[in-house]
Every structure is written in structure tokens, then in C-alpha cells.
Amino acid sequence: MVQIKRQARQMLKSLTRNERLRIADKIDQLAVNPDDLELDVKPLEGSELFRLRVGGWRVIFARFDTLKVIAIEKIGARGDVYK
């Protein structure tokens, strides 16, 4: 199950259709198998969060494996999302 926080949902809505579809496709892949090596997922240093790379965009999320939940915290441009 995927939960998308309000801030991430608003960012997703503001993107162009093509960008939105690319990111949504990767989030769907993430929901099916978060350990898929095809996805460019890495843990963030000093945090329990992870990042998913989609071109110049980053999706910051938390994994709750026992509950089988992916919580999308932020979606943003490569340089700005980590601030």
C-alpha cells in the first residue's frame, strides 16, 4: 500500500503530464517490490528515509515492511528535495 502525503501530492499535481506519469509509474513499481534492483533506491544518510531517483526528480519515502506500507514524504527536484 502506498500513502502519499499532502505536500508530495501537491507537487505531483503541479508537474507536467509526462513527468507525473513517469513518477507515478516508478511509485507503482516501488509498491509492488521495494527491493527491485531496477529501481534506483538508496537509503538517506542519518535518516530512516529512502530516496527513489526518477530522472531529475527524487521521491523521498519511508518503508514500513511489517505493515507493507510505503509512505511518500516528498517529491522534488534533485537539488531541492533534500533541504
Shape by Cα distribution: globular
Separate helix tally: 2
Q: Which range best describes the helical content: under 10%, 10-25%, 25-40%, 40-55%, 55-70% or over 70%?
A: 25-40%
Largest sheet: 5 strands, mixed
Biggest sheet, strands in spatial order? Answer: 1-5-4-3-2
- Contiguous low-pLDDT stretches (5 residues minimum) are none
CATH superfamily: RelE-like
Alpha carbon gyration radius: 12 Å
Keyphrases for this structure?
2 helices; about 80 residues; about 30% helix; five-stranded mixed beta sheet; 5 strands; alpha+beta; YaeB-like fold
How is the secondary structure organized here?
Blueprint (H helix, E strand, L loop, with lengths): L1 E3 L1 H9 L2 H16 L8 E3 L6 E5 L2 E8 L4 E9 L6
Parallel strand pairs: 1-5
Antiparallel strand pairs: 2-3, 3-4, 4-5
Describe this structure in words.
With 83 residues, the protein is an alpha+beta fold. It has one domain: 2-Layer Sandwich (YaeB-like fold), CATH 3.30.2310. Helix content is 30%, strand content 34%. It is built from 2 helices and 5 strands, in the order E-H-H-E-E-E-E. The protein has helices spanning 6-14, 17-32, and strands at residues 2-4, 41-43, 50-54, 57-64, 69-77. It has a 5-stranded mixed sheet. Strand 2 and strand 3 (50-54) form a beta hairpin. The mean pLDDT is 93.
Brief overview, please?
This protein has 83 residues and is an alpha+beta fold. Helix content is 30%, strand content 34%. It has a single domain (2-77), classed as YaeB-like fold.
